[in-house]
Amino acid sequence: MSIPRFWREIRQRYKGIGVECGNCGRVYFPPRAICPRCRRNSLGKMNELEISGRGKVVSFTEIHDPMPDFKMLAPYIMVIVEMDEGVRMTGHLVDVEPDEVESGMKVEATLRKLGEESPSGIIYYGYKFRPCR
Ligand SMILES: [Zn+2]
User: Fold this and answer.
1) I need a labelling partner for 26 at 20 to 30 A (CA). Which of 4, 44, 88, 89 fits?
2) So what's the pLDDT on residue 47?
3) Cα 34 to ligand 1 centroid, rounded to whole Å
4) Which helix (DSSP H) or strand (DSSP E) does residue 12 occupy?
């Protein structure tokens, strides 16, 4: 990801800000400028919405051979989560054993350090999911 794009998106990523279409009520994360369903009817009606961070697992995969940036984390679990707001998010699932993961499991998003961008040493953060206990 390029640096300008990173800075543009950091606020949304940090706070879990999505948008809700004022026309049809659909929620999008990351935020979109217009609703792909309503198109011009949604212009100027996309309202910021804080995502609660809670949802349930709809699908999961155990990754054994990840991209170089995530090598130290392998094996890890990628999940698709349907948030309480209805939007789907993809992310890592942590604090759980692989054989404990199942569809429908309740999870919550948590802010984690994802890595450091060298050589500048910028630390970037993102969300990960963990089971609701
Ligand atoms: Zn819409």
Assistant:
1) 4
2) 93
3) 8
4) helix 3-15
4: pLDDT strictly greater than 70:
no
Count helices and strands in the chain by DSSP H and E runs:
1, 8
Q: From ligand 1's centre to the CA of 130, what distance in Å?
A: 30
Q: For residue 16, give the nearest of 5, 29, 4, 3 by alpha carbon.
A: 29
Number of Cβ atoms within 10 Å of the Cβ of 47: 12
Rounded to an integer, what distance in angstroms lies between the CA atom of residue 128 and that of residue 35? 26
- Residue 96 Cα, ligand 1 centroid: separation in angstroms? 36
Please tell me the distance between residue 21's alpha carbon and the centre of ligand 1 in angstroms: 5
Place of tokens 């217009």: 34
Instruction: Walk me through the domains of the chain, giving residue ranges and CATH numbers.
Output: 52-131 (2.40.50)
Contact indicator for 112, 94 with CB cutoff of 8 Å: yes
